[in-house]
Amino acid sequence: MSDPAKLCVSNQKGGVGKTTVAINVAGALNHRGHDVLFVDLDPQGNATENLGLMEAYEDEPPTLFDCLTNPEQREVINDIIREHPEMDVIPSNIDMTAAEPELTLSRRSGEQLDLLLKTVEKDYDYIIVDCPPNLGNLMDNALYATQNVLIPALAESTSKRAFELLFDHVEALELDYEIDIKERGVIINRIDVRKNQANEMVEWINAAFPDIPVYEIRERADVQKALEAGVSLLEYNPESDMFDAFLAVAEGLDAEFGFAEVNA
């Protein structure tokens, strides 16, 4: 198998549905027949919980924290990968709350996740990393390891400042590490078409990113119900009108990364 496509789902602004987007994009890629590894890099462990793996969040060491911060524990990552009906998962853990200061002490603080993923990447078509909702060492690790970013945003005016902060941070990281991080898409999440501001922001985002795919996800109760059931919307309700919306994201990523649909 060739190297997998690696993608982080990132927005330092909280409350934009970042984890929801990450899980459903991973589920859509699985629906298209791909082997997916989902990495929950957020110390809060929301994705771990929403994928029905909350017991892993309280596991005793070794955990993702140990694999990420201790090079001698890197190979243990194979032992902490959990199976899920739609994807394999590297769960977060309560110990990840101490990862930021620990990584600060590392000689290669922004490269640890990249080194870690190299030990498992051969088994997957896609690796999806769910970032924490703040700028810091964990976010830097995700951006460096994947060098591709999918940006969830809400259809509200605060998203403008969030875009600016994220792009400034990405540009600084590119300069520091001499890399090129590609924006693979913007997902406008939880759109309420009944609100004028939402419709205006959808227009603004589409106009602001003419060279980046922009996907629109409307507010739907089934999206949250799916997470409560521990699966993506694509597994929970194939009849939802947002099924095709998330599938369009996966199709777009396949086109960008040069993948064909496995189950064509």
Query: Which blocks of ≥5 consecutive residues have pLDDT under 50?
Result: none
How many individual β-strands? 8
The largest sheet is: 8 strands, mixed
- CATH fold-type name: Rossmann fold
Kindly state the mean pLDDT as a whole number? Answer: 94
Across the major sheet, the strand order is 3-4-2-5-1-6-7-8
Strand content: 15-25%
Order of helices and strands: EHEHHHHEEHHEHEHEHEHHH
Q: Any idea what the radius of gyration is?
A: 17 Å
Instruction: Give the CATH level 1 class.
Output: Alpha Beta
- How would the global form be characterised? globular
Number of helical elements: 13
| N- and C-termini, Cα separation | 19 Å
Percent helix: 40-55%
Q: Structural class of the secondary structure composition?
A: alpha/beta
Domains counted in the coordinates: how many? 1
CATH superfamily: P-loop containing nucleotide triphosphate hydrolases
Looking at the overall shape, the CATH architecture is: 3-Layer(aba) Sandwich
